[in-house]
Specification:
Helix content is 56%, strand content 17%. The protein has a four-stranded antiparallel sheet, with no helix packed on it. A three-stranded antiparallel sheet has the order 1-4-3, with no helix packed on it. The protein has helices at residues 2-7, 15-34, 42-45, 51-62, 67-93, 97-119, 127-154, 159-176, 179-202, and strands at residues 207-213, 225-228, 234-241, 246-253, 257-264, 270-277, 282-286. The protein contains nine helices and seven strands; from the N terminus they run H-H-H-H-H-H-H-H-H-E-E-E-E-E-E-E. A hairpin with a 4-residue loop joins strand 6 and strand 7 (282-286). By secondary structure, it is an alpha+beta fold. The radius of gyration is 24 Å and the shape is elongated. The N and C termini lie far apart (64 Å).
């Protein structure tokens, strides 16, 4: 507990350290966003969601010397780190991420001024400090729910992010508060965690999409059969799309992975396809038979 208190309140976070911290955070995030091996893993999650940046914000708030100091340092940290993420990718990959995405993150950067100012009063270790922290816990809980779903679909991808969210939800009230306020804070975090687990159990992740269309290349209708060889990955069926007036092979994928699916005619003729399923996309190749 003493080590937690040291990290969240016992560090001399001067401006030089803050700027170095912001540059390192921005560069690291940009690298993780560009590395092919890190794509769709816990290592690239911080490029798109809040959980790690919440930690950075709370770390800065708890090691600031005043509400004004907290607001200015939070704003400066995000003003440096967030543009760097996009600018580095634009330079390396010749993309246009800064113009496309930074407007959204800049609004959050502006919001860090009042958030940093108000957040500083958590250091007073009063019951109303928990009211300040609770919206942050709820936001973090939403990220936890998101990544539980991702991990269930593509296990073990995103498992580290699930563990990170789970751990920080418990750590924040423990590190910031003491006595009864700490107990109430941990109880709130525990309820958020339990709620997100239950919601994902009751409604497991499903990737719903159409993967094949009746047309010039493939001809089929509802008299055909279609099925995955590995049924654990999901279910396939043929349905008629009224809007485009054609038959489609519709998929309800439940897990990522590689398998084959069979399109079988009423006469027993089979077309076999290899399919790689990912969380929000897929790749299909017809096998030569």
């Amino acid at each position: 507990m003493e080590k937690l208190k040291k990290i969240f309140g016992g560090i001399n976070l001067n401006w030089k350290k803050l700027i170095i911290f912001a540059i390192i955070a921005g560069v690291y995030t940009a690298i993780m966003a560009m590395l092919p091996i890190a794509k769709d893993t816990s290592f690239s999650d911080l490029a798109v969601t809040f959980e790690v940046w919440i930690l950075c914000g709370i770390f800065i708030i708890m090691n600031s010397k005043s509400a004004k100091d907290s607001a200015l340092k939070c704003f400066t940290f995000f003003l440096i780190s967030q543009p760097l993420i996009y600018l580095i990718q634009d330079v390396v990959n010749h993309s246009h991420l800064f113009n496309t995405y930074y407007r959204y993150w800049f609004m959050w950067t502006i919001a860090t001024i009042p958030m940093g100012f108000i957040g500083y009063y958590m250091k007073k270790d009063k019951w109303w400090g928990l009211i300040i922290l609770t919206p942050i816990l709820i936001l973090l809980g939403e990220e936890l729910g998101r990544y539980i779903s991702f991990a269930m679909f593509s296990f073990p991808r995103h498992l580290l992010t699930v563990i990170f969210c789970f751990t920080t939800l418990i750590i924040y009230p423990l590190a910031i508060f003491s006595k009864k306020t700490r107990i109430v804070g941990v109880t709130i975090s525990s309820l958020i965690i339990i709620t997100m687990i239950i919601l994902n159990i009751l409604k497991p992740p499903v990737y719903s999409t159409d993967i094949l269309a009746d047309g010039e290349k493939y001809q089929f209708n509802d008299q055909y059969k279609v099925y995955l060889l590995n049924s654990k990955l999901g279910d396939l069926n043929i349905k008629y799309e009224q809007g485009i007036e054609t038959w489609m092979v519709h998929a309800e994928f439940k897990h990522s992975g590689k398998t084959e699916f069979i399109l079988e005619s009423p006469s027993g003729e089979k077309r076999i396809f290899e399919i790689t399923i990912k969380r929000d996309t897929y790749i299909i190749n017809e096998k030569n038979t």
